[in-house]
Design brief:
The chain is α+β, with helices and mostly antiparallel strands. The chain is built from 35 helices and 9 strands. Helix 17 packs across helix 35 and helix 21 packs across helix 24. It is extended and about 130 Å long.
Amino acid sequence: MLDFFRRYQRYFFLVITVVVIISFSFFGTYSTLGSNTWREQLAFKAVDGKEVTRSDVDEMAIFLATDNEDKQLYGGAWGPNFLNDGVIRKDFLETGLAQELVSAYRADVQDDLQKRLQKEKKYTPYMHPQAPFLSMENVWSYFIPDMTANFDTLRAAQDATDPGAFNSRIALFLGEKTFPSSSVKQVLRYQEKQYSWLKPDEDLNQRDLSLFGYHTLEDWFGPHFTRLVSQFIINAAILAEAQGYQVSKAEAMADLIRNTQTSYQQNQNKPSIGVASPEEYFTEQLRLLNMDQARAVKIWRQVLLFRRYFQDAGHSALVDTLAYQQFNQFSNESLFVDVYRLPAELRFGDYDTLQKFEVYLNAVSKQTRKDPLDLPTEFLSVAEVSRTYPELVQKRYVLDVAQVNDKKLQARIGIKDMWNWEIDEQNWATLKKQFPELNQKAGKTREERFETLDGLDSATRSKIDAFAKKAILRSHPEWIAQALADAQPQKMAVGLRTEGGKMPFNGLDAKDKRQAFIRLLDQASLNEGPAEGSPLYAYTADDQNYYRIRVLERSPDSEILTFAEANADGTLNDVRQRALEKYYVAIREQDPAAYQKENKEWKSFNSVKELVAEHYLNKTLAALQTVQKTLFVGDKEPSSWSKDQAASFRFYAHLQKAKEALQKKPEEASQFVRASEGEDKEQPSSRRPLKDQWLLEKATTSISRQKQEAGIDPAVAFAMVENTWSAIETPVNGNILFFQLKGKSDESSKQATAMAEQARQAQALLSAEAQRQLMRHVLQEIQAKGAISLAYLKIPQDSPANEPESLSSGF
């Protein structure tokens, strides 16, 4: 082997020499070829004439494109730059400087924004597939109300750089920062759970709810915008130094360390961090930015110079708080009042409700009232009401109910089991009785029965399959029992009637079924689960829904419904119909001309219903007109007022009596006012008397000229003397009330807080305007010197560096 190398060593030396020469020749000239890379291309000349390279601009744009708030929103994940505390968001978007910059360089961002606008016009916010009222826009309306208006404004724009469209874009960006997509998703999931019938949207967890699918600032505004901002900051830093502002490298480094420590404290417990100290945290962020410490300090020093220059201009705007002092003393003055008003169910704003109320009173009370506007205190017995209007009588229970539907149970029946049941000889006879069309078909053997079923049309076959599944289910009561045992029981308070009303259990429409069900509940032991074999163990009235019912409480006797209960479920619509029909037969002989046709036949009830109702309520309407004359002396004639307006005064006399009684004997308030919350809990075993439904609600509240109470005129309240009573307020919606002024509150601390907040807001507005004025002045100087240009972005990265022309345009 050594002989071989010695023999040919001259040739080996020759080859090695040639390779070395070629290698040195290539690598020796490589540095010269690479000295003019795209990173060293000239981007623009600053206001002082200094050349700024492409890498200077791009590195600052990358540094500013994300910030520490993005880091928080993504759960501390690596990617967003926590060293940036929000320069573009805080100093440009929130202050209005971004609008000024885009106005001056509109053409440079036109293409970026216009492409995004075309995509945004096609975007549809999330909406639940089964419940359209659960949507992103609905969530916005609760938490960020302006979001929808800005969303519509942006998508309606034709030019993305139009001031209105660009302002809306900024508002949407800031709005989503305030209430991010993760929060929207949480609210939607919470809303889904409020509706037991609603199936959760399985796609929601995987769906990105970020508006327009945007995540970063460049997604929203484009790369040209971030580079415009970067070039402006570089120029502003130069101008700041020319004005005498100074920021040392040590100071910039200290600020970066402060940002690091703040972010580290916020995210150190997040699993994605993976570092043990703020120093490692800082180093890892620089590595991800592909930037050394010196470069980061240089960029942040320029940011701090820009900030001091502009923030000093903002701080120079002073606000005198004296202008707000007297205003706040007046606007924040507040009063304590005791408000007495009707319960919501007795606030009548329409004639229809008045009709039902008068029919209700006549149906349940003794006719001993002298004044038609008096409220009854004596009522008919349950037996008397039941004979005429059984739908106004109920018995109350508190039940523990587990429920299962046969559809869920039938899902466990396989196709094979269903077919086997259908072609069984004994079951085939049952099917022929239920479906006569099978009598004409062959069915002696299992094969013939199978072919017969297979040849039926789809509609008939579906009916037969449904019948078979029900039959199979009935033959397996243990399935139903197990499903009810597995179901989560729900506690419910119910009022059951033998007629009328809405039953909480399916299949109880017939009177006899209702009576039988009520007897079962009355016979059941309290607080004990039904025994196996008991009708309540797997109760069903329709052979589709099965219930296991445990009786927790029940009222000892049947009772008459209150007006609120009877009106809530539509029961009084039927009662009124029957009462007025009966009344029509009784009165039509008194005025035949009004109720007869030309051929002397009686008109149908529906054609004269309103006339009959007016006759039925004639005494009440006459009394209400008297009330109207008393309250509106000198106003319109009562004949010009509608019956809907008259209905709103129905309880005026009642409140007048209550007010007079409270003024004379406040210790007897319980006769007119409901007990406070916590003392007014009604149990099935202890029903309040029917006359208590007329009791007023009392609430102690504070009002001011800014915070008002519905139905109370602040001008009237502030003119009153302490411990005096107001007149009775009579709004047209029936929310009649009166109040007593208890005293005035000392709001000095609240006034000081409000005044400080108003001054802060005024200072912020003036500061932003001062910064915008400085911005316009600086932009004029920059434009005059052509010190901002994005023309370098059009130069290919492999082209030699060229000096770009300055591109600028305005509105």
